[in-house]
Amino acid sequence: MIYNSGWIIFNDFSSLIEFKEKPLLGNNNYQNTRILFLILLHKNKFMKLKWWKILCIVFLFVTFTAGFLIKVPIVGNLHQSIRNFFFHVPMWFGQMGLLTLSLGYSVAYLRTQKIKHDIYASEFAKTGIIFGILGLMTGSIWAKYTWGEFWSNDPKQIAAAIAVLIYLAYIVLRGSMTDMDKRARVSSVYNIFAYFIYIPLIMILPRLVQSLHPGGMEGAKGGGNPALGGQSLDATMEMVFWPAVFGWLLLGIWISSLKIRLSLLTNKNLINE
Amino acid sequence: MPDTFLMSKIITLLKKDFLLELRQQHTFFGILLYVASTIFVLYLAMGRPESTVYNGLFWMIQLFVCVNAVAKSFLQESKGRMLYFYTITSPVQFIIAKLIYSTVIMLLMVLCSLFLFTVLLGNPVMDPIQFIGIAGFGGLSLSLVFTLMSAIAAKAHQNAAIMAILGFPLIIPQLLLLIRLSKSAFGEVFREGAVLQICLLLAGLDFLVIILSVILFPFLWKE
């Protein structure tokens, strides 16, 4: 049941003033579900209903519930913290996806000169930065329990921090120019350049250098593909992992799409399309 | 574009840049003085450091020298002159000439700072020839990235600070590789073929940067 939460605080003192715990929607779960469903289906002012948004909600729901409930294999000293796999790695995949989308729209801007594409590119980059910071945070919390400290100078961590720095510089560059066309052109050039420097950075450096992350040189645990960690991906985990990847990616796209729509409306007079 | 890669235009642009340097000596000697003062202050602060510190300090100095040296190459051109170049030459030739020019200036600066480092901060280097080679290679890599960054910064209100902000995150992969590579000149033993692998990786990254600069500069060229 959904309560107006402020009322609970005053519950103890309410008998004199006759505040009651007031349900916000219906009186029980069935009524609430029906009401929410009706709100979602009919054109409401809060959310444009699309198939992929429903899919995103379903996938993330699966991730959060099954991610904590399914049985996981016990690998080395990871124990239950291997569940981080459902949050940290999909966030990276989501970030890479968002930055790739940003790159695509930058290239599209340079080819077609439509400001719309530049707005898409910058909003995807901003959400990419947020996902990068979240990935670093989830990674360092996991590292605290597994490797012993938050920041252990692991190449992958460093590569991730560099990505955040690069795209923060992108934001600074955009802020330093006021002319809309010049800003779009110059920041698209920087976006493309930065992306193609970033890809070698994350692909090559962890493989070359001995690291704590799975998949470094010999001597690190778990050789093979550095992104998926070799043998620790068994069937039950994969069932939650791939929905998690798509769920986080779709969430990133959803957040970006809201910001894009806001930007397009704010700049409607200037864009002229 | 039949005469895009015609060397004569590139050589003319290069000659123009070098002549300017020879005439207006204050830019070249300005950077030289910057190198000398920085290394001198470093010597006063650090004395004679051991090899890992020496290595790290050397590459940090190279980074800052590169930012200053290359900033001059683009930011010294006034808007009127850039318009003139726009009419007489193609962007590809212009950027290639600038890349070569920055590389030569940076190599000269690297040699100067190597000399000053050896004189002031001591010489813990085991293999000097290898270190000179690595330093030269490093100077080349740094100057390539910063040339494009200064082209971008020239569009963003001619600010040298923004060039550093844009350039520093992008130079980190090459800087890390260079620091690791130059450890081999200090006597650290690497596994079989690692030195060659790192060199090839650096060369690959440089090649990538050159290709990207040549492709992307024409978009910056139009005003």
Strand content of chain B: under 5%
Cα-atom Rg of chain A, whole angstroms? 23 Å
Fraction of residues in H or I helices of chain A? 55-70%
Mean pLDDT of chain B: 84
Instruction: Give the topology string of chain B: H per helix, E per strand.
Output: HHHHHHHH
Characterize the largest beta sheet of chain B: strand count, sense, and whether it forms a barrel.
none
Describe the structure.
- The complex is a heterodimer of chains A (273) and B (223).
- With 273 residues, chain A is mainly α.
- Chain A has helices at residues 5-9, 14-17, 29-41, 51-69, 88-112, 115-146, 155-175, 180-208, 235-266, 268-271.
- Chain A is flat.
- With 223 residues, chain B is mainly alpha-helical.
- Chain B is globular.
- The A-B interface holds A 110, 158, 162, 165-166, 169, 172-173, 176-177, 182, 185-186, 188-190, 192-194, 196-197, 200-201, 204-205, 208-209 and B 145, 148, 152, 155-157, 159, 162, 165-166, 168-170, 172-173, 176, 180, 197-198, 201, 204-205, 208-209, 212-213, 216, 219-220, 222.
List keywords for this structure.
heterodimer, A: 273 residues, mainly alpha, 67% helix, B: 223 residues, 8 helices, 83% helix, globular
What's the structural blueprint in terms of helices and strands?
The complex is a heterodimer of chains A (273) and B (223).
Chain A lengths: L4 H5 L4 H4 L11 H13 L9 H19 L18 H25 L2 H32 L8 H21 L4 H29 L26 H32 L1 H4 L2
Helix pairs in contact in A: 4-9, 5-6, 5-8, 5-9, 6-7, 6-8, 6-9, 7-8
Chain B lengths: L6 H17 L1 H22 L4 H25 L3 H10 L2 H31 L6 H28 L4 H23 L11 H28 L2
Helix pairs in contact in B: 1-2, 1-5, 2-3, 2-5, 3-5, 3-6, 3-7, 5-6, 5-8, 6-7, 6-8, 7-8
Structure at a glance:
The complex is a heterodimer of chains A (273) and B (223). By secondary structure, chain A is mainly alpha-helical. Chain A has helices at 5-9, 14-17, 29-41, 51-69, 88-112, 115-146, 155-175, 180-208, 235-266, 268-271.
